[in-house]
Design brief:
The protein is an alpha+beta fold. Helix content is about 30%, strand content about 25%.
Length: about 260
């Protein structure tokens, strides 16, 4: 975890005075110079301090913005990927709530990229819906599993009655940021396979990228709380970023995600 020691205000026009950093301070964010040790080592090479070396290194100094113990953006003043968030933060510097929103967006993207590799093909097959053949009394029985991706409704899966929240008859009538439960079915050959249980779906207005970011946040929380990959099927749940509902994730002994869904009572 990174901890603030002293404030470093990057130059090059991003933040020209400490008051522009007030909203960052209120949200617990701070800057850290990444290359301080390297700069000192370079300066101390040879005989004494070389002004040419100072100028050459300072023009490309690298900074990191730390938020909730994570580097949410880093780079030098020449890095466009670093410039944009800092410019956005400066524009919003008089609004602490807006600054918090930008910081959270940066944090969630960073955490998602950290665990993007844990979303293997197996996860997507299950999330979209997969039909497996089960043996029952010597007969092959088709069963539908997963089917929690509302982005494939109408193409891969069909939505049946919406069970929760109550009183909703249409997918398009679902409120934003609220998970829902519904019956689902999938076409298979010339027939239809219905899922035995209802499927829990993430909110209608969350696209697949938002869903995976939320899952990655829970995965990150699992690791930070000491979670391990002891079994073939491991489970962990935690609140979503809005603290409105819990998300359960499932992952194998290699740490790869196999399933995830909102817990709806």
């Amino acid at each position: 975890m990174f901890q603030p020691t002293e404030w470093v205000i990057p130059s090059a026009g991003f933040f020209s005075k400490t008051s522009e950093c007030d909203a960052l301070v209120q949200n617990g964010a701070f800057f850290m110079e990444l290359d301080a040790a390297a700069i000192m080592e370079s300066i101390n090479k040879g005989n004494g301090i070389n002004p040419d070396v100072i100028g050459a290194i300072s023009s490309n100094r690298r900074f990191a913005l730390i938020y909730k113990g994570e580097i949410v953006t880093e780079g030098s003043r020449y890095d466009k990927a670093y410039q944009k968030p800092l410019i956005d933060l400066k524009k919003a510097s008089t609004n602490a709530n807006k600054v918090e929103e930008i910081l959270n967006d940066l944090l969630y993207e960073r955490i998602y990229l950290k665990y993007e590799g844990q979303f293997k093909i197996k996860f997507h097959h299950h999330f979209d819906g997969e039909i497996l053949i089960k043996q029952k009394s010597g007969e092959d029985i088709l069963e539908l599993f997963g089917a929690r991706n509302h982005d494939v409704i109408g193409t891969k899966i069909q939505l049946g009655p919406i069970r929760k929240p109550p009183g909703i008859n249409s997918f398009h009538d679902l409120p934003d940021d609220i998970p829902f439960k519904a019956n689902v079915e999938m076409k298979y050959g010339n027939g239809i396979v219905k899922k035995k249980n209802t499927s829990s779906f993430f909110p209608r207005n969350w696209d697949i990228k938002r869903v995976k970011k939320e899952i990655a946040l829970v995965y990150d929380k699992m690791l930070k709380s000491g979670g391990t990959f002891r079994y073939e099927n491991n489970k962990f749940f935690f609140l979503d970023s809005t603290k409105s509902f819990e998300i359960q994730i499932e992952f194998d002994q290699f740490g790869n995600l196999t399933s995830a869904y909102p817990k709806i009572n």
